[in-house]
Specification:
Radius of gyration: 26 Å
Helix content: over 70%
Structural class: mainly alpha
Length: 341
């Protein structure tokens, strides 16, 4: 926020130019990331694999990806209801889509946090309300993860290599613990008298029990859509529950390693767990199609949308009439001396 006395950093004459330079550098980084990821993809293998996929399967996978992005973009509508702000639903969903696309490719601090604060503050929301929206969205996303990962791990359907430390009963115990955490959140939303959740030192009022169930349904559906997309691209040659479980492990591995876009992590996890059932080359080709569809295309679209929003805001700001400058006071005349007698 600008200093009301006009002495803050944003009041400096060089600040608008510095902000433009930083924005230009950031989007140059985004373009570089797109180019780098695109160069790391063996497009010949992708086109060959895509050519081997029937067109209906590719269209179905693309439709599942669109449905997932659309559903995730509605997560902040829960925050809209939760905080009571009046922004139009389309602006909320557009903001969430842009943030999610950058979140997938650049990490949560840049996409999930920085972009939401930047875009929502431009739309007139204060930091406290933006923080609550962000908190509800993050809880929604990971609540479904806890339930699905817990169910898949606890069921024993997912077989991991014996050399992994979590193989066997430890993985099932982990699944049970994840289910307990998710159940505890839902029960707290229904029955807690304190009505307050503390996340990393930040206090977040608990939503109602009905909203918690809606969070659970939306998040589980979103993760299942992502799993169905990969399952479709793998020609349904492996059980859906197995593919979903591997995707969930890859998702948390990408978060732990802090690799932008989980580049290489997703592929490594799938190859480690499924290469004995599908040749590694075919597996990687399908995953590269998934990455191009679910990560790169939305990032390119989100970049264009955000640049369009920035350009419109800058144009609107230039059209605003500047307040008239106060007239300069007339220079004081020296007092005339009285004549000497």
């Amino acid at each position: 926020m600008d200093n009301p006395k006009g002495r803050g950093l944003t009041a400096r004459a060089w600040w608008p130019w510095a902000r433009r330079i930083v924005t230009l550098l950031f989007f140059s980084l985004v373009v570089w990331l797109l180019v780098k990821q695109a160069r790391n993809i063996d497009w010949a293998q992708v086109w060959t694999a895509a050519g081997n996929h029937p067109l209906p399967a590719l269209l179905l996978a693309a439709g599942l990806g669109i449905a997932s992005h659309g559903l995730y973009s509605s997560f902040d509508l829960l925050g809209r209801h939760y905080t009571g702000h009046r922004l139009p639903a389309w602006q909320v969903m557009l903001t969430t889509f842009i943030s999610y696309a950058f979140n997938l490719n650049l990490g949560s601090l840049v996409g999930g946090v920085a972009f939401r604060f930047r875009l929502y503050s431009r739309l007139g929301l204060d930091n406290a309300r933006i923080g609550r929206i962000l908190g509800i969205s993050m809880l929604t996303n990971w609540l479904g993860y806890l339930v699905l990962a817990g169910a898949v791990f606890a069921s024993g359907l997912l077989e991991v290599p014996a050399e992994w430390r979590i193989a066997g009963p430890p993985l099932q115990w982990l699944g049970g613990a994840l289910l307990l955490v998710a159940a505890g959140y839902v029960v707290a939303c229904f029955a807690s008298k304190r009505r307050l959740l503390v996340v990393r030192g930040h206090e977040l009022p608990l939503p109602t029990g009905r909203m918690a169930l809606l969070q659970l349904a939306m998040s589980c559906t979103n993760w299942m859509l992502m799993g169905a997309m990969v399952w479709t691209l793998l020609d349904q040659r492996i059980g859906y529950a197995t593919v979903l479980g591997v995707l969930l492990i890859a998702a948390i591995a990408g978060v732990i390693t802090h690799v932008p876009a989980g580049l290489g992590v997703l592929e490594a996890v799938f190859v480690a767990l499924l290469s004995d059932r599908i040749p590694a080359g075919e597996l990687l080709a399908s995953l590269l199609i998934y990455r191009a569809m679910y990560y790169l295309v939305p990032l390119a679209l989100a970049t264009l949308l955000h640049l369009t929003i920035e350009a419109r805001m800058l144009k609107a700001k230039r059209r605003q009439p500047r307040p008239p400058r106060p007239p300069r006071p007339a220079p004081a005349r020296p007092a005339s001396r009285a004549p000497l007698h």
